[in-house]
């Protein structure tokens, strides 16, 4: 009887979890297939009476989503490469070397994670303006290229599983620290690098504030700001915005489902010392 109750409770919790995930998506999915009149007159959870597939066409063409995808891929590609390189090298230095202020640097990374990013927007905007990169793709690349405590933490956990004897053997053969990192450490960090790339990529893909504030030019719109074209002082075309949300969500969902094993293994594999 206890086993039966336990199984029933387990599946009940799983059903609740699934419902909690699906219910917020249904209004967006149904709304994307409704006309403007039906959207405002019907219940948000009511299925559409007539499916308006043209909403997806309007969202993709009028919202210039192809341009948004192009800008996003360009900014995201460069930013991820720079961010992963900085994060991995920072973690290597913090893990392998002891120097004055070693603990302070780690503490500063943690403190930076506690400060809301929105509180720094004025200072960041001034810096971007002084660098003369406002309203250029370089603004997004520079801001997204910075590493964060999550990336550093993941790399540090993996570094615990890489023996320092490998570094010592390479140094005895005359290898420099840069050669040790790029020929020995970096290949062993590939699972962590893949995990950080996925997490960073999703973060950049979903970010709205940075391109909206620092890249407001229409030709520089990223995928997260493309849907802003359908809102204005006279109202918003919510049925088209919903269709755009579905279009934007599909690539992220496909990438996550295809690479989810890398995410889980990267977050867990480095958490236990061998």
Distance between the termini: 40 Å
Radius of gyration: 23 Å
The helix fraction, in percent, is over 70%
Q: Characterize the biggest β-sheet.
A: 2 strands, antiparallel
Weakly predicted, low-confidence segments: 270-274
Which CATH class of the domain at 63-228 and 245-269 is shown?
Answer: Mainly Alpha
The helix-and-strand class reads mainly alpha
CATH topology of the domain at 63-228 and 245-269: MetI-like fold
Tell me the series of helices and strands, N- to C-terminal: HHHHHHHHHHHHHHEEH
Mean pLDDT over all positions: 84
Number of helices: 15
Biggest sheet: strands side by side, in what order?
Answer: 1-2
Q: Looking at the structure, what is the overall shape?
A: globular
Looking at the overall shape, the CATH architecture of the domain at 63-228 and 245-269 is Orthogonal Bundle
How would you characterize the overall build of this protein?
The protein has 274 residues and is an all-alpha fold. Helices cover 72% and strands 1% of the residues. It contains 15 helices and two strands. It has a two-stranded antiparallel ribbon with strand order 1-2. α5 packs parallel to α8 (137-144). The longest helix has 32 residues, at 65-96. It is globular, with a radius of gyration of 23 Å. It starts with a helix and ends in a 5-residue tail after the last helix.
Based on the model shown, name its key terms.
72% helix; MetI-like fold; globular; mainly alpha; 274 residues
List the helices and strands and how they pair.
Elements: H1 2-22, H2 25-31, H3 36-41, H4 54-62, H5 65-96, H6 102-114, H7 121-130, H8 137-144, H9 149-159, H10 164-172, H11 177-188, H12 190-206, H13 209-214, H14 223-226, E1 231-232, E2 235-236, H15 238-269
Antiparallel strand pairs: 1-2
């Amino acid at each position: 009887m206890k086993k039966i109750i336990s199984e029933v409770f387990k599946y009940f919790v799983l059903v609740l979890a699934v419902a909690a995930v699906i219910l917020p998506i249904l209004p967006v999915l149904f709304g994307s297939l409704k006309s403007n009149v039906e959207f405002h007159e019907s219940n948000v959870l009511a299925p559409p009476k007539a499916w308006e597939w043209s909403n997806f066409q309007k969202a993709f063409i009028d919202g210039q989503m192809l341009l948004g995808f192009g800008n996003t891929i360009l900014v995201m590609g460069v930013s991820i490469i720079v961010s992963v390189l900085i994060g991995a090298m920072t973690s290597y230095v913090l893990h392998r070397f002891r120097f004055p202020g070693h603990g302070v640097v780690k503490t500063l990374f943690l403190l930076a994670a506690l400060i809301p990013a929105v509180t720094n927007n004025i200072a960041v905007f001034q810096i971007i303006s002084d660098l003369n990169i406002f309203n250029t793709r370089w603004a997004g690349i520079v801001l997204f290229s910075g590493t964060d405590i999550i990336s550093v933490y993941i790399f540090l956990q993996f570094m615990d599983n890489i023996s320092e004897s490998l570094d010592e053997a390479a140094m005895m053969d005359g290898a420099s620290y840069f050669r040790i990192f790029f020929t020995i450490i970096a290949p062993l960090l590939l699972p962590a690098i893949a995990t950080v790339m996925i997490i960073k990529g999703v973060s950049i893909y979903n970010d709205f504030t940075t391109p909206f504030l620092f890249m407001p030019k229409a030709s520089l719109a990223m995928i997260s700001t493309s849907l802003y074209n359908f809102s204005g002082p006279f109202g918003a075309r919510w049925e088209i915005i919903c269709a755009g949300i579905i279009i934007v969500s599909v690539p992220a969902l496909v990438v996550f489902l295809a690479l989810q094993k890398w995410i889980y293994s990267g977050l867990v594999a480095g958490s236990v010392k061998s």
